[in-house]
Amino acid sequence: MIKKIAFIILVVAAIACGTWGYLYLSKLKRPTTNPLSVLPDTCYALIETKNLHQLSEKINQGNLMWEELLKTNAIKQFNKTLQKADSLISNSTNSNQFGVQSVYVALYQSKKTELLAAFNLADISTNDLFVSFLTKNFSAKKTSGNLYECKQADYTFYTYINAGLVVFSNNSGFLQEAIKNNKTSLAQNKIFTETYQTEDKESDINLFIHLPHFYNRAWTNFVASSVKNKDVYGTKKEAWLSVDVTVSPSELNTQGFLSNDSSVIYNALKNQEAVNFKDAFNVLPYNTLQLRAISISKYTQFIEHNYLANPEKRKQDLQPYTDKINADAQTEIEKFVGDFAVLFTAKCTDAEQDYGLIQVTDEKLTADFLKEASDSTFETSDSVKIYTDVAQNLFPDLCGQFFTKHFKYATNLTNAILFSNEISAISDFKKTVSEKNNLLTNEHVVNFIDKNLSIESAFLFYADVFKSREEIIGGMSNNMIKLLSQSPEMFDKYESMALTMEKLKNNLFFKACANFNPKSKLYQNTLWETLLDTDLYSNPTPVKNHLTDEMELVCVDKVNNLYLLSNTGKILWEKNIGQKILGDIHQVDYFDNGKLQLLFNTENQLFVIDRNGNNVSGFPAKISAGAVGGLTLFDYEKNKNYRLWIPLKNNTTVCYAINGKPLVDFIPVKNTGQVTHLVLQQKDYFVLIDTLGNINVTNRKGETRVQINSKMSRGYHSVFIEEGKNTESTNICYVNDVIKKLCKISLTDKLQEINLQEENNITSVFIDTLQNSLNPLLICTTEKGVDVYDFFGKKLYERVLDKQMQTPVKSLLYKEKHLYTALENGTENLFLVDVIDNKITDTEIKLTKLPENCVLISNEKPYLIGFYGNKVFCIKQ
Question: What is the value of pTM for the model shown?
Fold first, then answer.
């Protein structure tokens, strides 16, 4: 059915556009018959476009959504003929002088889908020219009166031509019946005429949906029958839905009017003021996947209009509460109910949950009502007061049955009642949502709505399309699902969709937008996002849960809070440690019993913390001289006799035992640089390089193993130790960006310098060992891009980038491709660089630092773990 509709519409495009190429505007005698006067008003939809040529140009010149749709057969065929029509226009010598008339396409449904299209020729005297056009391009033959049969290899259609009016269809009988009877045409339909006057004259496409015809006859062509009776507009009286469509490369923007047909949604909003739903966003979770929010600012009228058909039913619905509180429930509810109600789906911790929320104005009156109206009250182990509603009707009753979702449990929030069917979901909600962790802090959602719609309205719908895709697909017809299956990635490339509505005069004005962005594919793979109390200063550290063998994450924020997160983003515990952590966080088996603890140091203390966030007895231990960097952990014999090398403020590095005591037989090393351990010919070599370029090589006790007098030059980057079989073949490697040389200092103190063929200034150097640690690559970033060298100084790739990157860069194995990650200057957006294929992939993911690869879940590929401010990202590759 969809293919037939698209196919017939393309015939409209071809005929209309081709005809316009023959029409000269001077001395025109315009047609007097309006196309709307021959189209019966029993259609379920009407499509109007004022300029098919401009529409064709818009959708075929860089429109991302159209490019994806072209992967489907029906749209591909439509586009082929549309472009042919454009060619007819552009090849006409007089094309720039010819007028363009609106083309109307009306869709009907009986036993099968029928279509009528109509438009006026610009000049009534050009009938013969138009017939000639049909004869030449479509082998037209006159059958009777003003009716012509037109054929091409793969389709046949019929055209009626009279006094400058052109009407055609794929069904000859349907066409003839339509032109005989114009007493029930669209032009005579007063409700349609009123709606038609509201259209936006500048829109690319104007669409009119006829209710209840669409609902009764064509619904299952587009929408699943299973959702037919759920909050659907237009099921009773006749009404027209006017939709103005504006085409842009990455967004589909629509707006229009829903006329009064006494539907549920019209009655619900009939007297409601627009409210600022940012007040709702303040109490919704950051990871809200979809929501429907409605204004109930005039609650009495809201209830009255929702129960217009049966006013007594409201009293019946509230009778159980009236009996329990010994007062009129409606009167008591009106005393505390607020401005809005929200039905939403969110992920607070591990799982997605459905919730309901009612804003309230008086918390005490609300608590009193819940206590008396509920079936029971109890507190959870974490002191959350829960009210039980066995009948599960309280939420829909408070909403005046606008939302019909049933919930068993409720609790008080600040100025709100929260509903859920899971006690744990309520507890997780209250733990998760805070002033710094709510939907209003989700820039992705707020920016999308602010840009395209308005958070201030009487009704707001929002959905993260990718994360809600299963539910959305579940609401589609089999025809639509089949169409989408021809372009399986299309659905994944839609980011967000939203709809707002509010009352204007006697109509509902709506705006809707869907955002399509293939650049955000990586963002769509975000497994979860978790907000912490304050901004982080380093990437999360993966640690092992010794009870489950799964990985977890340790995070530290700028006010020295330490967090443990599950691999689903749930905050397991939080602990303030008083000082900034220096260096890395390690794991040790302190008691040698298979249980793992966290090990790290601050400036003045050494910490060992168990998996529950508690300090191990005897810790934190004092670092008397004060540390200037993070410890380096060694387990020489793999027997858990740990050694901790710690750089101190007195410009030495000392060694501590795992019990927090310094080793008395260790000679402090006069170097505070990072420590690297090598084993050459069964001997230990510990290499320390400080910020001044001094190099010390010692044994386990801090005694000098070999003497190196060479110093690394100022301006060195990214030290890499090229390990050989002995001291002669083992080199300390770095790049001197001033002289543009790869320098190698052997452990026998011999210097080798290799020239780099680099004309640009080097801004950073990254030594890449991702795929082969024995044959690393030298990655140099410059002011122009990225250059790749081997360790013999040969330039392998030179890639110029059209954007400025922050330094440094990192390597990444993504979908079996070796890529480099960087952050863009100014935007902090993550992007990927494929130096081999010379491609850049934008992600639209903002990060404070480059993410880390982490095998977070067993038997799955690594995830990207990173952060932006106080937000932790887990992104599936």
Answer: 0.73
